[in-house]
Write a structure and sequence with these properties.
six-stranded mixed sheet, four-stranded parallel sheet, elongated
């Protein structure tokens, strides 16, 4: 009990010292549950361990028969710890990070089921997998590449609809469909933004959408943003990007083919018309 109290105090200091950075708690009995209760994500060592050896980690499956009394992380530790710590939903607010047990070549040599291991990682909504800078067996390139594409967030911009013509000083009114085909959200307070270019004039219009709430599945935005007064009647090119918390520089690319060299995605061209005599905005 005294050890748990000391651990809790250290976690409190940790959280008070890093208020903006997404934080994680190590998957163990003392720190795990309290860290999760305070909003942390989690980190686990020995991802991929499905050893069936009585002498843990020593045997090669091709030489040693499986032992039904053996212990491993994937079956005997992760499920228990995650459930006991009430951490099943923690991925929605903070990252889940794994480091491999041994390296993937060891898994391959022991004939472990890579597809099952990857399914477990996706089930836990992993955002990061550290493989200790080791090469991936050639036969497993495809499943690992597919795993990389599913880990964390992966935003596909499916469709944007907006009026082709708007009044000067009016609104950029749009429907936007984005699909997160990954298994986790984006944990930093980046911003969805549109870049409006007319000749030498460039303006950034920021969406009010909270990108950290873009969970796996469909995101549908119905938004209306004022057009900058600097834009005059004429054609305006519209680009989109996910930019920094305070800077206008693109930080995250959408999983689509078209992208400019500076990281912005070209979308469309709209026409700005002169205001009506009564000054109406549209």
């Amino acid at each position: 009990e005294a050890y748990q109290e000391q651990t809790n105090r250290l976690i409190d200091v940790y959280l008070e010292s890093f208020r903006k950075t997404p934080l994680i708690s190590l998957i163990n009995g003392y720190a795990f549950k309290y860290g999760i209760s305070r909003g942390c994500g989690w980190r686990a060592d020995c991802f991929g361990d499905v050893s069936m050896s009585a002498a843990w980690g020593k045997a090669c499956a091709s030489k040693t028969p499986p032992d039904p009394n053996s212990w491993n992380h994937m079956y005997d530790y992760y499920p228990m710890q995650v459930v006991k710590a009430d951490a099943l939903e923690a991925w929605k607010r903070s990252p889940v990070i794994f480091e491999t047990c041994w390296v993937p070549r060891h898994w391959h040599n022991n004939r472990w089921d890579i597809n099952w291991i990857i399914r477990q990682g996706l089930k836990y909504h992993a955002s990061v997998l550290m493989t200790k800078s080791s090469p991936i067996p050639r036969e497993w390139n495809k499943p690992f590449n597919d795993f990389i594409k599913r880990m964390g967030y992966r935003f596909v911009l499916r469709q944007m609809m907006t009026p082709a013509k708007v009044k000067r000083g009016g609104f950029l009114w749009y429907y936007l469909w984005i699909e997160n085909i990954g298994v986790a959200p984006l944990y930093r307070k980046y911003r969805l933004a549109f870049r409006l270019t007319q000749g030498k004039t460039r303006e950034i219009v920021v969406s009010p959408s909270d990108v950290t709430r873009w969970l796996p599945g469909d995101i549908w935005l119905d938004e209306k943003r004022p057009l900058p007064e600097s834009l005059k009647p004429g054609r305006v090119d519209v680009d989109v990007a996910i930019i920094g918390e305070t800077s206008p520089e693109p930080k995250v690319r959408f999983a689509i083919e078209t992208v400019r060299s500076d990281g912005w995605h070209p979308l469309m061209t709209i026409e700005i018309e002169e205001r009506t005599k009564d000054g109406a905005r549209s």
